Amino acid sequence: xxxxxxxxxxxxxxxxxxxxxxxxxxxxxxxxxxxxxxxxxxxxxxxxxxxxxxxxxxxxxxxxxxxxxxxxxxxxxxxxxxxxxxxxxxxxxxxxxxxxxxxxxxxxxxxxxxxxxxxxxxxxxxxxxxxxxxxxxxxxxxxxxxxxxxxxxxxxxxxxxxxxxxxxx
Length: 169
Fold this sequence. Notes:
The chain is mostly helical. The chain has eight helices and no strands.
């Protein structure tokens, strides 16, 4: 439990928790996408919404433009996820921890933080990379919701892991 409602301010600690949460989120996201693609490949005759959605998520204009730079996008994903950990630990977390009910539920603090980076992704990052407003150019309408789930997982992990790794005093 975090002593005195204070989140760790050590840069190394924040980086470690942020990088770990980002790595788990990235692996979970890749697992979901690969599961969906495997489903679509195993049943090419399927025309249901889920199969079309996963195919649209994988085969779209943004990926066609950036497929060569995929490794750089993974690096950017890791950097932004880690930067969000700093944002949580230094700005949002301390505010959440002032409320006793939230301080006792670090997982809830992380979930309450998750919409902040999600909205930044939808309104800033996606338009900057050519994916359009709210990812509209991705031809995969459910991307917004998959992105929300990934950000909720990341926030949840940040909240739990900051609390679990905090040293009293």
